[in-house]
Design a protein that fits this description.
CATH architecture: Up-down Bundle
CATH class: Mainly Alpha
Order of helices and strands: HHHHHHHEEHHHHHHHHEEHHHHHH
Strand order of the largest sheet: 1-2
Strand content: under 5%
Number of domains: 1
């Protein structure tokens, strides 16, 4: 099984996809005039948008997106990237995040433009929807939807469950089967509650877990501040192959940095547009800004926190092409959660391994919830928004079984299957947004023009020459209601 998965990964994650991710990010950065730099203040301001009966708030959409972006890849994935790509892989993760924020703007704005309402009156959208409506290629949209149901319903949840299991086993010797059963039961209680319950769950848990994790990282980095100059120097030297120890794996630094960067921040992968489409906004560009911001939060904050904890404490392994260690700060050959656990344990003896295990539990569990939402959305697309009770129950059962199985299977197989899912979605989505970029760019210019004129931006697709945006056309100017007392405010 592992040999087949490895062969698939070698084909899917060829240098072509690596450079496509970087090239597309650079291209969209230029086309949007680096919206990820110019629009930071707007990104923060837009988080205050309200919700409606049909859609979630901008903040809830952000947390739903972050629950997919902030996950085990931010802990175990960073450690694995360092193991196989050296410290220089961290630099390439930063580059992917910076460039990928513009890609996230494009795909998320497209999702808003072409979103629909399902039979229950909830907003649904994502790559399958904008591929069909804007590209007019039903077969391509169906292919993406099928791949996404398989990837997010069967392949990717196992990675998250596996890392939770490994973290709990390492911290408290919790048997993997017990972790699998517990995760499946907790997940079932949430996913049978619908989209609103998912949004309410992530709105509370995601900020809590991210701030707590970053807080501990800041403490550890502050207590090892003397190491920071050497750490940053090592990252940049090994990123460009000028470090004597890591120069031999320069290609691996780029490959693993981009691979794990895309896996972590999801820019271009096609997962982020799903929660983006669920938001209630007055203009599609608003969710483009918000989702671009989520890429920053994911990689530049959480992934960097993990990397600095590992590198500042020297608790990492790096292996060469043949598997021989180039450097080892650990007694064993761990490449996953044990990296971060060892780093935090070194700084906070007796508490480190348990803290990281809990962080993994929150990070990865909310990601599994987000994956289910994406699988459900694409199932809704395949059933034309009418839903099918038996198919829906089948997807739910599939996710629960994937979580239980992932908790007990090997880490190599879990990550391999996850990479297959990520890679297939990225290929299909990136090609689509390259073809369909114009409406997102038109929306950006329209939004900015209205802001400069002192107006509250609204969206009229017909006036902009954007066809097939039926939901926006039917409702005219969308009215976002005032926030209720229970809504989130900054």
């Amino acid at each position: 099984m592992e040999s087949v998965v490895n062969a698939l990964n070698a084909a899917i994650w060829s240098p072509a996809l690596i450079y496509l991710c970087l090239g597309v990010g650079l291209y969209f950065s230029i086309r949007t005039r680096f919206v990820q730099v110019r629009g930071v203040a707007e990104m923060v301001r837009l988080l205050r948008g309200g919700s409606s009966a049909a859609g979630v708030s901008s903040f809830q959409a952000l947390t739903m997106s972050l629950s997919g972006r902030v996950r085990t890849g931010n802990i175990a994935g960073v450690a694995t990237a360092i193991a196989y790509g050296g410290p220089g892989a961290v630099f390439w993760m930063w580059i992917v995040a910076f460039l990928g924020a513009s890609t996230a703007y494009i795909e998320s704005t497209l999702a808003q433009i072409y979103k629909e309402k399902d039979a229950s009156g909830q907003y649904r959208g994502g790559p399958a929807y904008y591929i069909e409506k804007a590209m007019r290629q039903k077969w391509y949209a169906t292919l993406f939807a099928v791949v996404t149901v398989i990837a997010t319903g069967l392949l990717l949840p196992g990675v998250q469950a596996n890392s939770i299991s490994a973290g709990l086993l390492n911290a408290w010797a919790v048997p993997p089967w017990m972790t699998g059963v517990g995760l499946a039961l907790a997940l079932a209680a949430i996913i049978f509650g619908g989209v609103k319950r998912i949004a309410q769950f992530t709105e509370v848990v995601v900020p809590f877990m991210a701030l707590g994790y970053i807080g501990v990282a800041v403490y550890i980095v502050a207590t090892h501040s003397a190491e920071l100059p050497a750490v940053f120097s090592l990252i940049f030297r090994s990123a460009f192959g000028t470090d004597a120890a890591f120069g031999a794996i320069l290609g691996a630094a780029v490959q693993w940095g981009v691979k794990r960067g895309v896996y972590s921040n999801e820019a271009g992968q096609g997962t982020g547009p799903h929660p983006a489409a669920a938001a209630e906004v007055n203009h599609p560009a608003e969710q483009g800004y918000v989702q671009a911001f989520s890429v920053y939060l994911d990689t530049l904050l959480v992934c960097t926190a993990t990397a600095l904890m590992i590198l500042c404490t020297g608790r990492y392994n790096v292996v060469g092409k043949g598997g021989a260690p180039l450097f080892s700060g650990l007694a064993g050959s761990e490449t996953g959660p044990a990296f971060a656990q060892a780093a935090v344990e070194a700084a906070i003896p007796g508490w480190g391994a348990g803290f990281v295990a809990l962080a993994l539990l929150f990070f990865a569990f909310t990601t599994i919830v987000a994956y289910y939402y994406m699988a459900e959305t694409n199932l809704s697309y395949l059933t034309h928004g009418r839903g099918n009770r038996w198919l829906l129950h089948g997807v739910r059962l599939g996710v629960l079984l994937a979580v239980g199985y992932g908790a007990v299977r090997s880490a190599a197989l879990a990550w391999g299957l996850g990479d297959v899912g990520v890679g297939l979605m990225a290929w299909l989505n990136i090609i689509a947004i390259l073809i369909l970029q114009k409406p997102a760019l038109v929306a950006l210019r329209d939004f900015e023009a209205q802001k400069r004129a002192g107006k509250a931006p609204t969206f009229t697709p017909a006036a902009l020459g954007i066809p097939h945006a039926e939901l926006w056309t039917e409702r005219g100017r969308p009215a976002v209601p005032e926030q209720s007392e229970g809504s989130h405010r900054f």
